[in-house]
Amino acid sequence: MIKEQCLGFLNTPALWIGEQFGIEQFVFPELNMSRFLPKPIFKKMRLGHQMEHVFEQLLIRNNTYELVLHNQPVKDGNLTIGEIDFILKNRETEKLLHVELTYKFYIIDPTISEPIHRLIGPNRRDMFYTKMEKIRDKQFPLLHSENGIRTLSERNINHEDIEHQACYKAQLFMPFTDMNVDITPLNTDCIYGYWVRFTDFENSAFRNHKYYLPYKSEWVIEPHKMVRWSSHFETLMEVNLRTLNENAPMLWMKKSDTEFEKFFVVWW
């Protein structure tokens, strides 16, 4: 499944194009994936860390960049105060590029007035705007702080030579009742599905289909038929248990052997 994860990551659009919010989006170089044989990734690893391994494996398949640093801690004495995701070197220009990697799943909450504040985690525990501000205002400047400069200089890297970008990919899920919520200036190609409340999932519109609850490591990939599908009734019981624990599961819904939908059932 790791190859499907890599393809899912690669095919997920960037959350914005070019520069927005004072952050330039990293553009992945074109890759030939025909003979790609990725190394296994430990499934119990957090999804964000899995995506770092995916990014690294994809990166070394191209001739544009050389990987200089990956997951480099920045310390103040014995205290770790931050981490540098990736520093790349352009093989042609020799320019250094600091890339902060983020892969997120956000639902769109139309009750929030400002479009860029509408993106929140399915369990309402994280927000796009907060994460974006952290990258721009904390993670980028960290490299130019006293501790960041020292960390880089120990590896013969001059902090003044570094440009900053974010590889910020996301899958977005619109409310089932309104698939046209404004998310300007974000990329609408990131819309992968919708979200419903448990009471909506109980109704007749969902009863005649089959369902699969993917593991979190499968959230990145496209739904496919080669899984164990369950009835609406069986799925309802499992989803009910998740929502009682304040956990919003992702579901794949099979409408036919070639037609699938992807959505979250939220507990709140």
What does this entry look like structurally?
The protein has helices at residues 2-11, 47-59, 128-142, 146-153, 198-201, 232-244, and strands at residues 19-20, 23-24, 65-76, 79-90, 96-108, 119-120, 162-175, 191-197, 210-212, 250-254, 260-266. The chain is an alpha/beta fold and 268 residues long. It has two domains: 2-173, no CATH class; 180-266, no CATH class. The strands form two sheets. Strands 3, 4, 5, 6, 7, 8, 9, 10 and 11 form a nine-stranded mixed beta sheet that branches. β4 and β5 form a beta hairpin. It is globular and about 65 Å long.
Task: Label this structure with key terms.
268 residues; single chain; 6 helices; alpha/beta; two-stranded antiparallel sheet; 2 domains
**From N to C, what is the helix and strand string?**
HEEHEEEEHHEEHEHEE
Number of helices: 6
Largest sheet: 9 strands, mixed
Q: Give the integer mean of the pLDDT values.
A: 94
Question: How far apart lie the N and C ends?
Answer: 32 Å
- Please state roughly what percent of the residues sit in beta strands, choosing from under 5%, 5-15%, 15-25%, 25-35%, 35-45% or over 45%: 25-35%
How many domains make up the 3D coordinates? 2
Oligomer: single chain
Number of strands: 11
What would the principal axes of the Cα set say about the shape? globular
Q: Based on helices, strands and strand pairing, what is the structural class?
A: alpha/beta
